[in-house]
Amino acid sequence: MYIDATEKKWVILVLLMTAVIIGIITGYAVEFNIHPPSNVESIDSTALHLSDEFNEDQIGVKTDKSGMVTVTMVAARYGFFPQDITVPANTPVKIRIASADVLHGIHTPDTNFNTMVVPGYVSEVNTTFPRAGDYPMLCNEYCGFGHDYMWARLHVISRDKFSNQGE
Ligand code: CUA
């Protein structure tokens, strides 16, 4: 098969660029521990307030006997509930969040916490926040006129401080 010399150059260039781009994406994914969510769990979004896990009294931060920290949250136009979340630094944290209405997203800059919150499903993220500090949790899927105002606060505190607050 005859391939023109110029065409050959471009084919090589495009293949090289593709390899570089895939390399960069893979490098970032490994470096920052980024991977697609794998939890598939359905829930009735219209009845979150009646569910055992996502009702008003149950949402928030909980530590079980083994020391596992679980954060349960509800996303609803236009806020994340509870609005203030405090978790320990350098500790595995499981975050479970469900939408009470439409599609939302939740994202904390400078961390790898970022997931879509699809109505009808529970989004689950297992992560560790290495640095103490106050972070915003922002909605990153357009969900209506109040989208820009949909956010909550994440407080990452040292493990000692966390265990001393009597949780
Ligand atoms: Cu919720 Cu945008």
Question: Could you give a quick summary of the protein structure above?
Answer:
The protein has 167 residues and is of the alpha+beta class. The chain has two helices and ten strands. The structure holds dinuclear copper ion.
- The secondary structure category is alpha+beta
Ranges where pLDDT stays below 50 over 5 or more residues in a row are none
Number of helices: 2
End-to-end distance: 72 Å
Q: How many structural domains?
A: 2
Task: Write out the distinct hetero groups bound to the structure.
Answer: dinuclear copper ion
Q: How much helix, percentage-wise, in residues?
A: 10-25%
- Second CATH tier, the architecture of the largest domain: Sandwich
- The Rg value, from CA coordinates, equals 21 Å
Order of helices and strands: HEEEEEEEEEEH
Mean pLDDT: 91
Strand runs, count: 10
Q: Could you tell me the strand content as a percent range? A: 25-35%
Main sheet makeup = 5 strands, mixed
Assign the CATH superfamily of the largest domain.
Cupredoxins -  blue copper proteins
Report on this structure.
This protein is of the alpha+beta class and 167 residues long. It has 2 domains: 1-35; 41-165, Cupredoxins -  blue copper proteins (Immunoglobulin-like, Sandwich), CATH 2.60.40. The chain contains 2 helices and 10 strands; from the N terminus they run H-E-E-E-E-E-E-E-E-E-E-H. The chain has helices at 5-31, 159-164; strands spanning 60-63, 69-76, 79-81, 84-88, 92-99, 104-107, 114-117, 122-128, 133-138, 151-157. The strands form 3 sheets. Strands 1, 2, 3, 5 and 8 form a 5-stranded mixed sheet that branches. It is elongated. The protein starts with a helix and ends with a helix. The structure holds dinuclear copper ion (CUA). Dinuclear copper ion binds next to loops.
